[in-house]
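dude i think i finally got it to work??
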Amino acid sequence: LEKSLQEAQGELKSFEDKILRIREFRKSKARWSEVMRNVANATPGGIVLTALEDKSKGKLVLRGEASTSGRGGGPEQVAGFVERLGAQGSGLSAARLVSAQRVKTGEVEVIQFEVECAL
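look at this
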């Protein structure tokens, strides 16, 4: 009887662990959706995000390109984007520009950049 009770308690503990993992997954999924929504809201026209990388240490790296043509394009547009990412109060903070360089592909010149944010 005691052995059966221990086995039942072990199964119950295993089931409780599974429930906790499912709850944590749902929370992280909801948080990730919120972060992506904030990134989309902060991204102006003229900027194309080419990569998102979730770093395991609570950091998100965004790579993208910004058009240098048109009004408000170029470095000012990238700086404004970084500022808006950092200003988003729900999910992103400490946004900083890691690198930026002008690249000419054929007739078009763009700024390729990388931004790092804390989650």
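DSSP finds two helices and four strands in the chain.
im so relieved honestly
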